[in-house]
Amino acid sequence: MVTAVLLWIAGFLVVCCVLIFARMSYEARLHAVTHSEVMMEGLPEAFDGCSIFFISDIHKRKLSDKYLQEFQGKADWVILGGDIMEKNVPLERVKENLEILSDIGPVYAVYGNHDLKADPEGLAQVLRDTGGILLRNENIRLERDGEEVCLTGVDQPLTKRDGYPGLPDLPDSDTEACRIVVVHDPAWIRYAPNKPDLILAGHTHGGQIRLPFFGAVRLNAFYRKYDCGWFRWYQPQSFVKLPQMLISRGFGNRRVALRLCCPAEMHLIRLKKGTADKLK
């Protein structure tokens, strides 16, 4: 009798492990796109209703043209939040991914820490070959119907000791321009006394493995606070009163292609002019 009970328990545990593993593998291979609407008080009228397709931390994964075909023509810009590749990922695969993304809209990208460890020069060349623009501590003007938004790419430091640089200066005539900043690691906010209108970041993978009630199991205190999703601050002394930040869980995976309670994601972000009193 005891043996039978033990065998039943062992069988039950095996089935649970198989189901959990299958779920983790499924979450890691998703091509899910999270839809968001962000209210921005400083957004020019001409940009009201524009959309950004944001993807971060591709690593070694392959994008699917089949899944992303429906987004062609639905985004005004495609922004890559770094870790577009990693060591031992062939540049041909990177090129195929970038060609798929360039069919959605004009591509802008920043380096992530794994890009710098892999082949930054090769990645820069592939971006140029596919029509993308790499932003390294520089601003670019997005224009629409005579109005402008400043897109700023913050460069990833080689080591944590190097620290992040400050935001590149805007021309005197543009100091109050609406500004979107893309940076790989959200730890950059530690170096930003006054945050811009919108920050897009990745790097954390949302912890990749998250337990119910406990959250991410392998993130330090800062990243447990800023792990994934939307964040907002109130800075009454700044020109931008309510800056906002999105940290993506990322599309790819680190070390193993497994996730738990933290599915892979991409983002379609709709920009709306208005007070940031809520996020959808």
UniProtKB/TrEMBL annotation:
Record key words, sorted: Membrane, Transmembrane, Transmembrane helix
Gene3D superfamilies xrefs: 3.60.21.10
Coiled-coil residue windows: none
Gene source species: Paenibacillus dokdonensis
TM segment ranges: 6-26
Top-level taxon of the source organism: Bacteria
Annotated protein name in UniProt: Metallophosphoesterase family protein
Pfam families tied to this protein: Metallophos
Residues covered by the Calcineurin-like phosphoesterase domain: 52-206
Keyword Secreted recorded: no
